[in-house]
């Protein structure tokens, strides 16, 4: 869909990656699978674990762990199965590991085995508690230990090993600090405040006289409708904030009809269009491949200085000296 999905940007910043990796439209199925897993555990919780069930669960656990290893190998290109490897790399963006991980969660919650005790060790539980903080800060902490690639020898090899180890240790230390000093106090505060709002909205908090104050359909409906309305306003406001038409009108109200730049097309690396790239990278040197980036920097301005930065716009042909060209017009003929 070339008129909708910008094929000129790098994969890292593409609409394709956003849709299948970041957006909720593809990730909602993982969330639903987690809900079903929790529901299955709740339904089976009163039932004693039979020998047959335990043996079957052990077998499925072994299959789940083996599938994760197998998928990891295919993701790295082991076997050189081009079509299969490409499908695995695509599914790894969202649902590939979800079924196996869902069963492992169910297994650990329901069955008391050596595997459950291993995953319940204090170290692994602590890493699990800080996992969200690790996810949030690792892209910044690991950059401290980045270093340009050097010719492989024992000196640079030892240097790389030490940087990896210290990078991991520093990330874990910083993540644990943010978990204890920010995440835990914030979570306690928000649950305390929002819990009162929910209790007030649904009338589910018992009174001192222990009078049954179960939520009436009207109160619950009004509270839910109010919450959904707020979410709808957030969604509409967020889309409006990303709308070029809305920003253009606001801009005109502030600055009037002045002469401004309007980017028609911007191209980076067209001279390297046929340059061979090594997998998994692809050559995306094409006309208009960085138009969006230049538009964000220069549109609606009277003067624009644009710096070509590959960390922002990507590199269409790594290793090839690239040209850069911009086609623009003015909003009024007199400019």
Task: Break the fold down into its secondary structure elements and pairings.
Layout: H1 15-22, H2 24-44, H3 51-75, H4 82-91, H5 98-110, H6 114-119, H7 122-129, H8 131-141, H9 154-202, H10 217-241, H11 244-255, E1 261-268, H12 291-298, H13 310-313, E2 324-330
Antiparallel strand pairs: 1-2
What does this protein look like?
With 335 residues, the protein is mainly α. It is 60% helix and 4% strand. The protein has helices at residues 15-22, 24-44, 51-75, 82-91, 98-110, 114-119, 122-129, 131-141, 154-202, 217-241, 244-255, 291-298, 310-313; strands at 261-268, 324-330. Helix 8 crosses helix 9.
What's this entry about, in short?
The protein has 335 residues and is mainly alpha-helical. The protein has helices at residues 15-22, 24-44, 51-75, 82-91, 98-110, 114-119, 122-129, 131-141, 154-202, 217-241, 244-255, 291-298, 310-313; strands at residues 261-268, 324-330. 60% of the residues lie in helices and 4% in strands.
């Amino acid at each position: 869909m070339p008129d909708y999905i910008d094929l000129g940007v790098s994969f890292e910043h593409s609409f394709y990656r956003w849709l299948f990796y970041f957006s909720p439209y593809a990730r909602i199925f993982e969330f639903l699978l987690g809900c079903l897993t929790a529901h299955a555990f709740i339904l089976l919780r009163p039932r004693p674990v039979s020998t047959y069930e335990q043996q079957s669960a052990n077998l499925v656990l072994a299959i789940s762990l083996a599938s994760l290893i197998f998928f990891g190998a295919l993701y790295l290109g082991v076997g050189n199965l081009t079509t299969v490897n490409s499908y695995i790399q695509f599914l790894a963006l969202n649902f590939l590991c979800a079924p196996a991980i869902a069963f492992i969660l169910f297994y650990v919650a329901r069955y008391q085995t050596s595997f459950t005790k291993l995953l319940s060790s204090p170290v692994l539980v602590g890493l699990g508690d800080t996992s969200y903080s690790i996810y949030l800060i690792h892209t910044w902490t690991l950059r401290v230990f980045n270093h340009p690639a050097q010719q492989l020898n024992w000196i640079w090899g030892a240097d790389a090993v030490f940087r990896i180890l210290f990078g991991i240790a520093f990330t874990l230390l910083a993540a644990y600090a943010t978990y204890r000093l920010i995440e835990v106090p914030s979570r306690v505060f928000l649950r305390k405040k929002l819990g009162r709002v929910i209790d007030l909205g649904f009338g589910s908090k018992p009174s001192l006289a222990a009078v049954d104050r179960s939520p009436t359909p009207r109160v619950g409906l009004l509270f839910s409708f109010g919450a959904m309305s707020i979410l709808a306003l957030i969604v509409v406001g967020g889309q409006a904030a990303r709308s070029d038409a809305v920003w253009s009108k606001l801009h005109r109200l502030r600055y009037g009809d002045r002469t401004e730049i309007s980017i028609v097309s911007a191209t980076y690396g067209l001279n390297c269009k046929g340059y061979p790239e090594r997998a998994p990278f692809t050559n995306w040197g094409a006309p208009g491949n960085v138009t969006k980036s230049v538009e964000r920097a220069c549109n609606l301005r009277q003067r624009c200085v644009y710096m070509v930065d590959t960390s922002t716009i990507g590199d269409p042909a790594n290793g090839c000296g690239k040209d850069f060209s911009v086609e623009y017009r003015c909003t009024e003929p007199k400019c």
